[in-house]
Amino acid sequence: MKFVFAEDTTSNVFIKQIFIQTQLQDVCWSLNIPQPMYKLHDTKVINRFQYHRYHGYIKVMCTGPLQYACFSKYGKNYYKAMKDVANILLNKLLKAYGKKIRDFNYYNVQNIESQLRMYGDHDGTFKVEMNMLNDEMQSLNSSKGFTQ
Length: 148
What we know:
Layout: E1 3-5, E2 16-18, H1 20-30, E3 37-46, E4 49-58, E5 68-71, H2 78-97, H3 104-143
Antiparallel strand pairs: 1-2, 3-4, 4-5
Helix pairs in contact: 1-2
């Protein structure tokens, strides 16, 4: 498994991540299907900058040849364009096979969703308690002759 430092980070904390292309290869291997193929589809020059677009596909004979094919968005470099097409292919493949990838981020999302549910439950309790306290305060004020 190949790790690299995360791109586009501005903090001093090192973050490691796996290439999305490597994750796609691992998924293909675990599903016993051929590895993905990538081909440079197009290069455009806009304002003296090159933008690249990749075509990616996986030949799966049981569902028909080139069943999983797609194009990337235009990327500022080859890596970003290939990463984009790999991400699209991976999503299509996971959806078609009914699979999910559970990684560190998956478990973080689960924890956050659990906390949100807990806060939502408490929110209802707090509203009930607040209404009870308001009613109690109004009854105390009215018994002492105060009006609001």
